[in-house]
UniProtKB/TrEMBL annotation:
<feature type="transmembrane region" description="Helical">
    <location>
        <begin position="27"/>
        <end position="47"/>
    </location>
</feature>
<keyword id="KW-0812">Transmembrane</keyword>
<protein>
    <submittedName>
        <fullName>Uncharacterized protein</fullName>
    </submittedName>
</protein>
<dbReference type="GO" id="GO:0016787">
    <property type="term" value="F:hydrolase activity"/>
</dbReference>
<keyword id="KW-0472">Membrane</keyword>
<keyword id="KW-1133">Transmembrane helix</keyword>
<dbReference type="InterPro" id="IPR017850">
    <property type="entry name" value="Alkaline_phosphatase_core_sf"/>
</dbReference>
<dbReference type="Pfam" id="PF01663">
    <property type="entry name" value="Phosphodiest"/>
</dbReference>
<dbReference type="GO" id="GO:0005773">
    <property type="term" value="C:vacuole"/>
</dbReference>
<dbReference type="InterPro" id="IPR002591">
    <property type="entry name" value="Phosphodiest/P_Trfase"/>
</dbReference>
Length: 461
């Protein structure tokens, strides 16, 4: 599962060490160029702020803990927090973490497909979805015919070793206040009720923050948790309803900032804010969708019939599993003919692949759970089965992770993070090794690069 990675240097930024990248195709190379261009802008802005640059040069090693006996990480996910949302309005608390911490200059790169469960579990395991098994929100295990859905807690679906299991394996405490997969009992992790409450969408954000803080109030010989996770289901829901540019998103992002402020205040009260490593990130981005940007599968019927029950998933991603006896290659060939005919509305906006032909950078072929035919609509387009008179605009994600709109954020703050530092964007499968490196424990084999943590964390003495 080790990832083939080649080191690249980022000469323009004041980066700590080598960052890694996967093999790039032309399209990504273009995006990388754009990213580099924006890095130049960042760098100019950054170095013109001499105060923070010289301060950054001063921190050469991890700062000592004053209250805690061992390192701790609070890992926070804000669902659908698209890269750039942090500039929508003044967010004093997130700004504080960014300016006194380390952040990814052009955001955190989601794994493909850029959906909530696959990405939360990639962050938790360091594995691409094809390797951790949660390849989509809905899929079929072809060996048994069983269907996965988001309330499936059977461990046979959830492969790899998530952070909470890694922590438990080292006899340390993890408190997982909602994270996809946390309720699955596997290995050393049995989801203890106190440290693993069932996911409940109705719990107000304030209560979630207070519950995370309360895990640090141990009595007697109870261990302070090494890992505490916190999950906010916004601004994702509002992003779907109203699109990423609506004013409600600005309000939602400000509310997330308030929650970060509540967490900071609670940690300060406990004299823990400078001891705890806070990692704030999101699972994916969001892009606007609208009625004119649709591709209908029924329009392909003159070339090929794609019945409803072959389709495992559709919208921002199309997954098709034809029954045995039907050649996927033939179906793809006919779909392509239809889409390329000029006679299918928006046909040019949908690319269909046999999964083996998908670009390698997507890492989306190495699992039987991934159906043989995968369709990828262009950014902002949706694939639907049939025409309807539904007319609505909103937002969506799930697209190619090369789109900037599918990126989220990464901010690290605490004793292991340099202050006022920016690193080049990286893939979210790197986060697993970063958290384990902070905690000083060995993770399971994964798709992250073993040397990545050194490039982003201050060394311990
Ligand atoms: C960074 O930390 C310092 C020292 O704790 C604090 O005074 C300052 O307000 C912080 N920066 C921001 C932008 O909040
Ligand atoms: C989801 O899966 C669970 C078991 O894995 C099953 O009990 C439940 O009925 C499924 N829900 C839906 C909506 O299919
Ligand atoms: C964890 O505790 C068990 C039982 O007390 C022990 O056998 C095991 O060696 C410990 N593992 C580590 C990594 O400390
Ligand atoms: C979910 O949380 C709400 C608000 O705290 C509570 O009223 C409700 O009982 C909880 N539901 C479950 C199933 O625990
Ligand atoms: C959509 O509305 C038109 C009239 O406005 C109607 O003729 C047509 O049958 C409707 N189509 C569907 C799929 O409901
Ligand atoms: Zn979503």
């Amino acid at each position: 599962m080790a990832r083939n990675s080649e080191p690249t240097t980022a000469p323009l930024l004041h980066t700590p060490a080598a960052a890694t990248t996967t093999k790039l195709n032309k399209f990504v190379a273009l995006l990388a160029f754009l990213s580099l261009a924006s890095a130049v802008v960042f760098a100019v802005l950054y170095f013109s702020n001499l105060g923070s640059a010289s301060k950054a040069n001063d921190d050469k090693a991890a700062r000592p803990l004053s209250t805690l006996r061992r390192p701790a990480v609070v890992l926070i996910s804000s669902d659908g927090f698209r890269f750039g949302y942090e500039h929508k309005t003044d967010l004093p608390n997130i700004r504080r973490l960014i300016s006194n911490g380390t952040s990814a200059d052009a955001g955190l790169i989601s794994s493909f497909p850029t959906l909530t469960f696959p990405n939360h579990y990639s962050i938790a395991t360091g594995l691409y979805p094809s390797h951790h098994g949660i390849v989509n929100h809905k899929f079929v295990d072809p060996a048994t015919g069983d269907r996965f859905n988001m309330s499936s807690h059977d461990p046979r679906w959830w492969l790899g070793e998530p952070l909470w299991e890694t922590v438990a394996r080292h006899n340390l405490t993890a408190a997982v206040y909602s994270w996809p997969g946390s309720e699955v009992k596997k290995g050393a992790w049995d989801c203890p009720p106190k440290y693993c409450p069932p996911y409940n969408l109705s719990v107000p954000f304030e209560e979630r923050v207070d519950a995370a803080l309360a895990y640090f109030d141990t009595d007697g010989d109870e261990e302070v948790p090494s890992l505490v996770t916190l999950y906010f289901d916004q601004p994702d829901h509002l992003g779907h309803q109203f699109g990423p540019d609506d004013e409600v998103i600005t309000e939602s992002v400000a509310r997330i900032d308030d929650m970060i402020g509540r967490l900071i205040a609670g940690l300060e009260e406990r004299r823990l804010f400078e001891d705890v490593n806070i990692v704030l990130l999101g699972d994916h981005g969001m892009v606007g969708t609208c009625e004119s940007k649709l591709v209908f599968l029924e329009d392909l019927s003159p070339w090929v019939d794609v019945p409803r029950d072959w389709v495992e998933y559709y919208s921002t991603l199309l997954s098709v599993r034809p029954p045995p006896g039907v050649s996927p290659a033939e179906v793809v060939e006919k779909m392509r003919r239809g889409l390329g005919s000029g006679r299918v509305e928006n046909g040019a906006k949908l690319r269909v692949y046999l999964k083996e032909e998908l670009p390698g950078r997507l890492h989306y072929s190495d699992s039987e759970r991934i159906p043989p035919i995968i369709g990828m609509p262009d950014e902002g387009y949706l694939v639907l089965l049939k025409r309807s008179n539904r007319s609505q605009c909103g937002g969506a994600h799930g697209y190619d992770n090369a789109y900037f709109s599918m990126r989220s954020i990464f901010v690290g703050h605490g004793p292991r993070f340099r202050k006022g530092w920016q690193v080049p964007s990286f893939e979210n499968v790197e986060v697993y090794n970063v958290v384990n490196a902070i905690l000083g424990i060995d993770g399971a084999p994964n798709d992250g690069s073993p040397s990545f943590p050194q490039s982003i964390l201050l060394p311990t003495k």
